[in-house]
Every structure is written in C-alpha cells, then in structure tokens.
Write a structure and sequence with these properties.
The chain is mainly α. The chain folds into 2 domains: 226 residues, no CATH class; 236 residues, no CATH class. The protein is 75% helix and 0% strand. The chain is built from 22 helices and no strands. It is globular, with a radius of gyration of 26 Å. It comes from Mucilaginibacter ximonensis. This is DUF5687 family protein. InterPro entries: DUF5687. Keywords: Membrane, Transmembrane, Transmembrane helix.
Length: 492
C-alpha cells in the first residue's frame, strides 16, 4: 500500500500545473543541499582540529561530548523553523477499504525522509570512525552512533509534533520558541547552567556505560508513538473541527472588540498569522530580531556611532512592518475576492492594517526598552525611529502593497520560498532603508545630531497625525489598480 501511496504522489506532482517550475526548484534545492553536505562532511573530517582551536584548554573528547547536545538543541530549533510536514491527501483514501493504521503509518514514516536526519551522521561519523573508534573501541563507537540516531529521531518527531499542534493553535509555536530562547539565554547570557556540561555528563558516561545509548533510542520511539497516536486520533476532518469548536479560540482578543469592524479585521489577521506557516515564520523572525541590538550595543566599535543606533532602532521597531508588510495583500490572496465583494469598506481594511502595524511597532519598542542599559540615548533614538516607522514606514509599505499582485500559498514554509517575491520587494527594501539616512547624515556632518533625530521623529509624528489623508490617497491608488491585483491573485 505504501508503494501505491508513493505512485499517487508522483502522479499528482507530474500532473500539477506547476510541475516544470516545481521540478526546477527541486533540482536547484538538491544542488544547494549537496553543496551543504560537502561542507558538513569536511567539518566532520576536521572536527578534531576545529574543537581543539575553539576549546584549546579542553581535551578533544571532552569538547566532542560537550558539543553533542548543543548541536541537537540548535538542530531542533532549526527543524521547527525549516522542516516541512510530510503530507498526503488522505480524504480520497478514507472512504476506501484501507486500514487507518496503514495511512497513519505512511504519514509517520515519511517524516523520517528529511535532509535534517542526514546532518548528524555526516558531521559526527567521520570523527567517530577516525578518532573515537581507535581510542575507545568498537562498542563505544557503536553506542555513540545509536545515541545519535535516537536523538535525531527524537528531534525529528518532536519538531513535527510541535508544528502539527501549532497549526491548530499558533500560541504553541510562539510559546515553544520563547522557551527555547530563554534556555539559550540562561546558558549563554545568565550563566545559570551549561548545556555543554550536561552533554558531557551524559555522553561521557556513554563511553563508560554503552548501555546508556539506549535511552535516546527510547525517547525517539516514544516521540514516534506520540506522533502516530496524534495523527490517528485526528485523521478525520470532523474530529479536528469538533476539537476546534469545543474550546474558545485562543486568538480572540477582547481589546480589539472596542475598534468595531476594524478590530475584527485585525483579529482575523492575527489568526491568519498564527495558523499558517509562512506568516508565522515572519512573526517569529521579527521577534528574533529583537536581539539584534546585542550585535551592535555590546560592540565597542559601534558604541559611539549614532548612525548605527539609528539603523538598529529603525530595524528593530519596524521589523514586523517590513518583514510582514512587504507581502500585503498577498497573505490574503486566497480570499481577497471575497473581501472585495463583502460589506467591508476598503477604508476600514486600511485602518486595520495601520492598527496592526501600530500595535506591532509599539510592542517592538517596549521589548527594546531594556537596551537603555547601554545608555539612555539609545532609548531616545529608538523612540524617534518608532515614530518614523509608525508615520512613514507603514505608509510606504502599504503604497508598495498596491503594486504587488503575486499570491502566496500560506501553507508553505518560509525556507527557500520565493513565492510572492517580486521586483517591488527589492525596491521596497531600498526605499525603506535610505530615506532616514538622507535626512540624518547631512545634519550629522554639520554637527546637528540632536536636530537630525528630532527631525526624524517630527516627520514620523506628522505622518501619524496626517494618517487620514494618506489613507484616502492609498484607497484611491488601490482602486486604480484593483482589478490587476485581483487578476494576479487568481493566478495559481
């Protein structure tokens, strides 16, 4: 039966409208992955010297054992971001005399066919066979291979389980991401514990007691069973819908109800972001960039440069507007026709976009206030760039949205996905980054840094106060291009 499933998936691929483009993309991706594999294998062969150079005061075997859990921790983070869910159109098979366990087993097992499962073996096996095998013997080397396989399987199914649960409740994805970031900060920044020491504690004992390698294998088997059970319980669509109806939606935001229909539109867009892969990735990446200031404000070379602070302030307080807003209205391309024939006025639609951008920029500004630790001037610069993003960046993004007629498939991930990306996105990046410095740099060269910051903030504030005028301008501009945008969104 599994052979039949594979045949059907191949036929579905070749018979699709975009088979040629899909094949070209797969070949391109295969070449990139092959190149990455070569780099990973090279890193594996030279792992001993690399570890000796990075950790000169530690024995290589200690560094190797300490690196293992660090690798798998960051691999899990990468899997959650990049690994695609294995898919099968199960509806046609549910009415046929096929056992549910067969369908679920196929879905679960195909989850192992991920390039992520190759990385640990390509990276660790060269060192195991070249160094660990001669030094510690065949049993120790075999136990390490078993442990690596177990942890890889565990990561694989844990990531798939998190992604599947996140498709029903977007807050799960955000919570898991926040927990992982806190764990990283607890080790690297706050020094509460050391993942390296924990890793050595386990893998160092695997060298002494090879039977411990069975533990990761058991963890992998448990996660396989959890995925199998979850898929089996949620195989039918009505079971999923019943669970959704049983609980109140997690994305209902009482605060938005005070904004009427505009608030309802924002709440629906929040649901769109949290329930779909690519917009959710845009949100998570925006949150990750809140740590962007650590690259600059901890670097002595940049501490005296206000220009860098202007760039960082603009980037951090406006990253969601830039990252998510560059694809307005492509996120809603699948149902944009319905929006245009509904009772919703386009003016309210624009107000909803502005409200969402305002909430996102305000939240980002609040999250970046701790950078005042590096100096109160940073907070002032962030405030000026926050006003700039609210008044200028949001309007520019919506202006370019009227020139983007490329649809986006929300179910696809963000990794190596250029769907919806056109020339307008590249121009937009330039248009957003250049104007603040056209204003700031000349005044700075004249020694009027304070005036430059004030002017940036004043322009942003003026944009906020005249938002009604800009909404009328954007609405009129949209109606000129409305039908070409709708036609572009209909092209799959």
């Amino acid at each position: 039966m599994i052979k039949t499933f594979l045949k059907h998936e191949l036929k579905a691929f070749w018979r699709s409208k975009n088979a040629g483009r899909g094949l070209a993309l797969r070949i391109f991706m295969a070449l990139i992955i092959l190149l990455l594999m070569l780099y990973v294998v090279a890193a594996g062969f030279f792992m001993g010297p690399i570890l000796k150079k990075v950790f000169p005061h530690d024995a290589v075997i200690y560094s190797f054992c300490g690196f293992m859990l660090v690798y798998f921790f960051f691999e899990l983070f990468s899997r959650i971001q990049l690994q695609e869910l294995p898919t099968l159109r199960v509806q046609p098979y549910l009415q046929l005399p096929i056992k549910r366990n067969t369908i679920v087993g196929y879905l679960t097992l195909t989850g192992l066919f991920s390039v992520f499962n190759l990385w640990p073996f390509l990276l660790f096996w060269p060192y195991i066979f070249r160094s660990l095998l001669p030094q510690s013997g065949g049993l120790a080397a075999f136990s390490f291979i078993v442990a690596i396989f177990g942890l890889s399987v565990f990561n694989n199914y844990l990531a798939l389980y998190i992604k599947r649960k996140s498709n029903l409740n977007g807050w799960i994805f955000l919570t898991i991401s926040a927990v992982m970031i806190l764990l990283i900060m607890g080790d690297l920044e706050w020094r509460l514990y050391s993942i390296r020491n924990i890793s050595y504690l386990f893998f160092g004992n695997v060298l002494k007691y090879p039977a411990l390698s069975v533990l990761p294998l058991l963890l992998g088997a448990v996660m396989f069973y959890v995925n199998f059970t979850y898929l089996k319980q949620n195989l039918y669509l009505e079971e999923l819908s019943a669970k959704k109806d049983k609980f109140k939606s997690s994305t209902e935001i009482p605060l938005l109800s005070s904004f009427g229909s505009v608030g309802d539109l924002v709440a629906n867009e929040v649901k769109l972001i949290l329930r779909n892969k690519r917009p959710r990735s845009a949100l998570v990446m925006s949150l990750m960039f809140m740590f962007y200031g650590l690259l600059f404000y901890t670097n002595p070379a940049f501490k005296s440069s206000d220009g860098i602070k202007v760039f960082a302030g603009m980037f951090m307080t406006g990253i969601f507007i830039i990252n998510y807003g560059q694809f307005m209205y492509s996120w809603q391309a699948a149902h944009f026709d319905g929006l245009m024939v509904s009772k919703i006025s386009f003016n309210d639609f624009l107000k909803a976009k502005y409200l969402m951008f305002s909430v996102a920029a305000t939240t980002a500004f609040i999250l970046t206030t701790p950078y005042a630790y590096f100096g109160w001037r940073i907070l002032v610069i962030h405030l000026m760039m926050y006003l700039w993003n609210m008044g200028v960046t949001a309007t520019i993004v919506l202006y370019f949205a009227n020139r983007n007629a490329r649809r986006i498939d929300l179910s696809k991930g963000a990794s190596f996905n250029w769907e919806g990306v056109g020339a307008s996105q590249w121009i937009l990046s330039l248009v957003l980054m250049v104007p603040p410095f056209i204003i700031y740099l000349p005044l700075k060269w004249l020694g009027l840094q304070e005036v430059a910051l004030t002017v940036l903030g004043a322009i942003g504030l003026a944009g906020i106060l005249t938002r009604g005028f800009w909404m009328k301008f954007l609405e009129a501009d949209f109606h000129k291009r409305k039908f070409s945008i709708l036609e572009g969104f209909r092209n799959k």
